[in-house]
Amino acid sequence: MAKQQPRVDAVIVGLGWTGSIMGMELTDAGLNVLALERGADRSNADFAYPKAADELQYGIRHTMMQKPKQSAVTIRRNLDERALPQRKLGAFLPGDGVGGAGAHWTGVLIRPTPTDLQLKSFADQAFEPGVLQDDMQIQDFGVTWDELEPHFTFFENVCGQSGTTGNLRGETQEGGDPFEGPRSEPYPLPALQDTQNTEMFDKAARQLGYHPFPNPSANVSRAWTNPYGMQLGPCNYCGFCSRYGCVNYSKASPQTCILNALKQRSNFAYRTHANVTRVELAADGKTATGVTYIDENGEEVFQPADMVILASYALNNVRLMLNSGIGQMYDPVSRTGTVGRNYAYQIGGGIHMYFDDIEFNPFATAGATGRMFNDFSPGNFDSASHGFIGGAKMHSSQASGTPIKTPLPKDTPSWGQGYKDALQKYYGHHMKLSMTGSVMSYRTNMLDLDPTWKDPYGMPLLRMTFDWKENELKLSRFMRDRLREIADVLKPDHMEESFQLNGDHFKVTSYVSTHNVGGAVMGTDPSNSALNRYLQSWDVHNVFVPGGNAFPQNFQANPTDLIAALTYWSAKKIKEDYLKNPGPLMSRA
Amino acid sequence: MASQPDNMSRRAFLRGSATLIPTVGLAGGISLTAQADEPAPNLSEYQPVFFGEDEWSFLLAACDRLIPGEHAGSGPGALDTNVPIFLDRQMDSPYGHAERWYMEGPFDLDGSPDLGFQYPYSPREVYQKGIAMTQQYCRQEHGKRFEQLDGDTQDAVLKGLEANDINFASLGERQMQASDFFSHLLENTKEGYLSDPIHGGNKHMAAWKMVGFPGARASYRDWVDQHDVEYPLGPVSLNGERG
Ligand SMILES: Cc1cc2nc3c(=O)[nH]c(=O)nc-3n(C[C@H](O)[C@H](O)[C@H](O)COP(=O)(O)OP(=O)(O)OC[C@H]3O[C@@H](n4cnc5c(N)ncnc54)[C@H](O)[C@@H]3O)c2cc1C
Ligand code: SF4
């Protein structure tokens, strides 16, 4: 029989961004809160200079990231392919250890647009019936801009978001994004410094009539004290940001922004090396009684709790729901069940440009450094006439200049003297034009449990079925043509393209993004969402599931501002209504 | 190594004040200095821990073709920068043992390569088997070991591995292809060449100096707005060596 721990009011599974936010909010409400984190304890001291400045360790060997040994994903591109385990990380890099991916993210902190939250309504009004693929399953989030705006603002204050305001309470502001939804407050801090590529991109984009603005950043441009009293120091442009812990208390992370404040609270505790394998349900299946985890000695432990918060990252959240029997597993043939439905991702592409005589100094940069424009987000251009829905963030970013990852033209030799010559010639002479595109949800892009492979604790692995669909490939081609126009203005000495185009399939071996979303989506209709609009399971009312899993499809930018805002939104409802009267917050009718 | 007079004196020199790296301002006003660690060993004196003598001779020869030294053109090579030492040390790291990877069967080798590697070998095994197969091929084809071949023939063998023109299955290895081994070898060689010397390669940060990467300085607040200007300072390593 499993060992049993004393009961707590709320147990949080995972101590990354969403777990830390929930920890703060639920302890505020006076609850006795315990977080269980499968990985190691990590504090700012672990990243103190110069430790984090080690490309091999962090950038290449993924020391801070999910270990496939403990939790691999099996992947196939369609229902007929046999899914195979992703034996080492590749396309996405979920976090492991206190802070989660929030400790090694890049820190581009950007909101969706109001349209992104109501994409289905937008599609119904902007597209003639029959234009969009019939296997598309896009939906509204079920929550509006006005409802989320205060939570974006609060999280951006927690992070010390640095950037240039574009729309303050409906008034367009010079230098910011004219397409952003109205903000109630300006950005907390001014934008990061520009780099050479930023300046070039900005000029070319303006020349073409676009509206570039600085990448909104959670690498802080100035010293900042956040609402929890935590202090961040100005970014050093250290060049070891994306995939690294911050050497300098400058990147917003659970560590720098929340955890030291949270750990002071007597009603909060956390345990590391505690890998939760399932949520335990009461006999009637309507409530959870707690969670079972494997502790660092390999022993099974039952942790009773009145409420369970799954905050273990989108993919892990879905897997825990499936392995625990929370809600009904999605079936792509009958289109019934909701858990695993509407898994989506992000599509990327870009043009690598090489300039023989320009020094980009790519090592002197912050993770979020760059410029973007939003002229091609949904509603801002006529994508219907090109036969696709969605949009892209168009940008030139320079997240780091570490040498092992030096991009080299494909026609240079990959070894021998020619390789060495190319390294000397091209290191520091490269900049990239990129598009980061939205990905819609489809009948057969989904998550379920793998029938063959199991983790070391005997639990089935998550199986991902995902491929690029026609809509996204059209989007990719359209955005490629726009980026080509920018390249034409900049006139590099050499350039080459990398885009997903017709006939391309999802590859798990090279990095795409850690913007895995959907699979347990939020909504107002229990037949097509696993969670109601407060991120509460429709089926097991004391289970809440904050994370990217809640997105019914993906929008064109980075997800964490929205993930965090949704988490605060959910917490508010828990505090205001759920705790007083525990039960379903929305009726199934 | 430590017993060598030139290294002894070098170490004594390094222990002096010359190796205190410039202070790096931290948010809290703390500043850090680090002292250079043991100086990098000479490759010719290094005793490999994981690789056997025969495997070692193969690696020395192969690395010299993958990133040739000054003799072939400007810039240091893999041997000048101790890349084989890096490879040997990696074999004993979590990476070498595939400690973090999912290595449970069944191993389905018929899937698309786009779904990632599926063979049941850790990098240690990839190297052991890959080197053995390559040597077997060289003996069959040329009657010599790889390291005894001339440079052009060695290049042809490496290209044969890269393109799977050398058929491991016909040599008795059915789970892994020649290109799987080659891509490990090439990728790891580049890693050893370009990573921090703390991992055993990139001796005296020679590769960083060649490309103009300042290493672990990690502090450019005063530099970031100097556009299109060559960065003037040499690199610093995690152990505080300056180049
Ligand atoms: C390299 C990289 C760059 C990124 N850059 C950006 C960016 O610029 N902008 C942006 O918006 N987003 C970015 N992201 C994504 C961002 O990191 C995530 O959106 C965010 O961290 C999600 O928060 P979360 O709480 O859902 O998950 P996490 O922060 O990852 O936290 C989940 C935690 O749960 C733990 N856990 C998982 N399973 C279990 C279990 N069974 N038992 C116990 N604990 C468990 C994990 O170990 C982890 O610590 C990036 C991600 C990566 C990897
Ligand atoms: S670039 Fe700035 S925020 Fe990012 S890790 Fe370095 S100092 Fe921290």
TrEMBL record, chain A:
SUPFAM superfamilies: FAD-linked reductases, C-terminal domain, FAD/NAD(P)-binding domain
Region Disordered: start-end pairs: 163-183
Domain of life: Bacteria
Keyword Magnesium: no
Residues covered by the Glucose-methanol-choline oxidoreductase C-terminal domain: 445-566
Any GO MF annotation of the entry: oxidoreductase activity, acting on CH-OH group of donors
Keywords per UniProt: FAD, Flavoprotein, Oxidoreductase
Protein family (similarity comment): Belongs to the GMC oxidoreductase family.
UniProt-listed PANTHER family: LONG-CHAIN-ALCOHOL OXIDASE
Record's protein name: GMC family oxidoreductase
Organism: Halomonas eurihalina
